[in-house]
Design goal:
single chain, alpha/beta, six-stranded mixed sheet, two-stranded antiparallel ribbon, 9 helices
């Protein structure tokens, strides 16, 4: 971030700190409506907004050092930060921030190809393996290159990650016009099917049982070409019959989604739950 200016006399700067912060809350509220994504006017699909820059949304902090100190935490909590380069590192970018600023960040998006997905499945417990990162929204945007994305190669790793991923409230994966081998919707069905299959196996076919630490509510937006996972509390311990009754609605919904997909010759895109 550019160097802040020295504070000069101003009516705003003479106000009590809590009043200044309340005003800055209002100033940065507009950032909540800027996600770094845009909708295609004709298809309605989501795509990365190449013109978006988090720096543009933080310009008010450059007014002076006092405004920067007062409003920094507020601004970082309301601003979406996007890594559009495949060669950048979000942990490296975050490392230049103060600890309190890192803890304030709530929305991060990054463009991904196979390298980013390999890194993602190795996070294990926290986003970017950083315990002090607590996100309301994590967005993974597929890179729209001429190469195919083989997302099926990462399905089992993503499922394992999700079972114990803390400090993330919602995960979005955006197709972004990328070419996905086997189709993006088919991969979504494969992912959800494996989530349910692994969950059942870990609960009732393993000794001792290994229930999930985090459960997820899933949805797919056909128009936007995106999927959403919302973190939920883990399911309680229960007998298998009760578990099967509880899982029947999402299982039936998943079966309908699978049946609506066209048959795909790629065998990696086909999977039965039981």
């Amino acid at each position: 971030m550019p160097r802040t200016k020295s504070c000069t006399s101003s009516a705003l700067l003479t106000l009590p700190a809590e009043v200044r912060i309340a005003i800055l809350e209002y100033v940065f509220d507009d950032n909540l409506h800027k996600s770094g994504l845009k909708y295609d006017g004709r298809s309605g699909a989501l795509a990365i907004d190449e013109r978006y820059s988090a720096n543009d949304s933080l310009q008010a902090l450059l007014t002076c050092r006092l405004i920067y100190l007062d409003g920094g935490i507020v601004a970082f909590s309301k601003t979406s930060f996007t890594m559009s380069s495949l060669f950048g590192s979000i942990p490296d970018r975050l490392s230049v921030l103060h600890t309190k600023q890192i803890e304030a960040v709530r929305n991060i998006a990054f463009v991904a190809d196979a390298r980013q997905f390999r890194g993602l499945v190795d996070w294990r417990r926290y986003p970017f393996s950083m315990p002090n990162v607590r996100l309301d929204r994590l967005t993974v945007i597929l890179h729209p290159s001429s190469s195919w994305h083989y997302l099926f190669d990462f399905t089992s790793g993503v499922v394992e990650l999700l079972r114990d991923l803390h400090n993330v409230r919602r995960i979005f994966i955006i197709r972004n016009s990328a070419r996905v081998k086997g189709s993006f919707k088919t991969w979504y069905n494969r992912l959800i099917g494996m989530i349910m299959k692994v969950d059942h196996h870990e609960r009732y076919e393993k000794s001792p049982p290994n229930p999930e630490k985090v459960w997820w509510r899933w949805s797919y937006d056909e128009v936007a070409q995106s999927l959403c996972l919302e973190a939920q509390p883990p399911k309680p311990a229960m007998d298998e019959e009760s578990y099967m009754l509880m899982m029947q609605p999402p299982l039936e919904e998943w079966k309908v989604s699978v049946e609506n997909e066209e048959w795909n010759p790629d065998p990696r895109s086909r999977m039965m739950y039981y």
